[in-house]
Amino acid sequence: MALHTTPLLPAGQQNIHALWLRLAHWINALAILIMVTSGWKIYNASPLFDFEFSKTITLGGWLGGAIQWHFTGMWLFGINGLFYLLMNVATGRLQKKFFPVTPRALWDDLLAAVKGKLAHNDLRHYNTVQRVAYLFVMADGVLLVVSGLVVWKSVQFPLLRTLMGGFDAARYVHFFAMSAMVGFVAVHLIMVMLVPRTLLAMLRGR
Fold first, then answer.
1. Contact 42, 70 (CB under 8 A)
2. Which backbone phi and psi does 7 adopt, to 5 degrees?
3. 136-151 pLDDT per residue, tens
């Protein structure tokens, strides 16, 4: 039996999300919250642009504290992310949930979303917009890790530094990858408010 579809209800219904997936989701949410808010504090110490983040939304109190929090979030994010990807591959969930993806299906679902006609009746299945969004955020997570390694240990990862275009370029890549992650989270929260059943499913599995 696949790990991501464990029968639970007597009426023949199945869990929408397995326990491992729900745990990975909430650990990831915590890790992102820690990394983003501490990262904003680190950014303020050496801004890339002509603005700073308000101290009220940063974590760490001071630069050293923010760096320690960022490392904590980094390990949570990295280990949990690897676990999530491996479990998706091992259970077949990656292929079943996120593929196929075609330009025509994406266009049709985007039009349906704009018209407010995109169905959310069966939470076990993702529409093409969701598939693309989740695949994007997985790739963005990998980019965050790679660029973060270059910023953290530039000398120790010369190949990654070269791929990123150098240390300074890696800082920009890391910033924009973080911004994309924050944007995804914002849209994700809006969708949860529009379809509250998705939150219940991620809490109790069904």
1. yes
2. -60, 140
3. 999 999 999 999 999 9
Q: Can you give the pTM of this predicted structure?
A: 0.88
- Rounded CA-CA distance 91/121 in Å is 24
Spell out the long-range contacts of 20-27 with Cβ–Cβ below 8 A and sequence spacing 24 or more: 20/87, 21/84, 21/87, 21/93, 22/202, 22/203, 22/205, 24/80, 24/83, 24/84, 24/87, 25/202, 26/202, 27/76, 27/80
Q: 47 to each of 143, 155, 171, 172, 206, how far by Cα in Å?
A: 20, 22, 10, 10, 44
6 in Cβ contact with 114 (< 8 Å) = no
DSSP class of residue 7 equals: B
